[in-house]
Fold this protein.
Amino acid sequence: MERYEKPSVTVDIVIFTIKDNDLKILLVKRGIEPFKNMWAIPGGFVRIEESLEEAAKRELEEETSVRADYLEQLYTFGEVNRDPRGRVITVAYFALIKSEKISKLKATADVIEAKWFSAFKLPKLAFDHEKILEYAIKRLRWKFEYTTVVFSLLPEKFSLTELQKIYEIIFDKKFDKRNFRKKILSLNIIEKTKERQKNVSNRPPQLYKFKKKIGEIVEII
Amino acid sequence: MERYEKPSVTVDIVIFTIKDNDLKILLVKRGIEPFKNMWAIPGGFVRIEESLEEAAKRELEEETSVRADYLEQLYTFGEVNRDPRGRVITVAYFALIKSEKISKLKATADVIEAKWFSAFKLPKLAFDHEKILEYAIKRLRWKFEYTTVVFSLLPEKFSLTELQKIYEIIFDKKFDKRNFRKKILSLNIIEKTKERQKNVSNRPPQLYKFKKKIGEIVEII
DNA sequence: CCAAAAGTGTTTGCTCTACACCCATGG
DNA sequence: CCATGGGTGTAGAGCAAACACTTTTGG
């Protein structure tokens, strides 16, 4: 059906989490050429019998042993010379994972080591992966500003302070507590539960839960 | 380098223009199976020595004989069974063209006919192309709301009424003339020229020109 | 002088920002 | 009773929406 040579297709997944009061990205150290021993975004070839999204989920689960709490396609990078091995088109995905769920990272075949890096202090990367990460961070901020993805990083019941902290980490700035709470409450997307947090050595915060569907478009901040 | 069978990769281009006071999309009638005689979004295989964007430009120029005034990647569709011929991943692009430039559409190989359809009255389409168009129209509206792409559809010098008309067509609703003008002028993205439009049988409008870079993010409406 | 589109301001309500103190709990 | 984070209101500025009449030109 096709008269031309085919390019190869890979998926790469930018996996974000919030850990130690910082925004983290999962990177892997390559065990094979090209770019052996350099850090890169995890990814791999798309198999003929799986969809792009299935491929992204598979790669992510191979690396972290858990399912993504949020996953969406980011962009497709298809410059002719982006991979020295030949023509490789990569479909980049963007994932969010709750850090509590992650126990241990696994080095898969071709990978020496997997590690969380601060999104604000990244090493030099293989291929055009710096461009991909730049794009991913922009998208991340857009998503948090205009949609409700944040709730995919929170437990079912959470305090308003936990919510605000995530925004402060991602936007790398402080928000006024009163204004933030007023704004969030006015959106009518969360509701009080009957519980308060236990085991805190100060006034126990009210816990809320999210009322809507994650990812929905709502201007948050 | 790869142990698996490769998928094929195509680009499909959703080409928009404003013509006859309506938002139009270019479709082609397929001359070959599968979906012979059905309407589809123009597209074709990505060649091994061209980037995705180059492929999109080539396909677009083959169809319309002109260069796009605006082009960006939309989304990559990669479900396993979206093409009955086998595994085909398509990278969809989104293009805007000034309608004055287009003289005649060309039917290329494999295509019986090319035709502009109203975006609000589309025929049944081949493959998953209805999903692609739905996605494209959403993106189009987003782009017009939050960026300055509109200027890629206007001549260098234009009146505020022409500008407003494009918004009314795309959002399929009327805007208040005074508020619209106030908003646009307050953005500080256009400036008066010394000219007024000629050959109109009424008060000749002031012509403006755009000061910035097309596509820049600015909340327009 | 008529038809057609251009051009122009004000009021009202809402939303965003800035800002500081008291409260509840555990140790 | 102290340390820690939780929880709350108000005033002022800026932005968005509603709304109608006069001006300029060609025919």
Summary: Chain A touches chain B through 28 residues (CB under 8 Å).
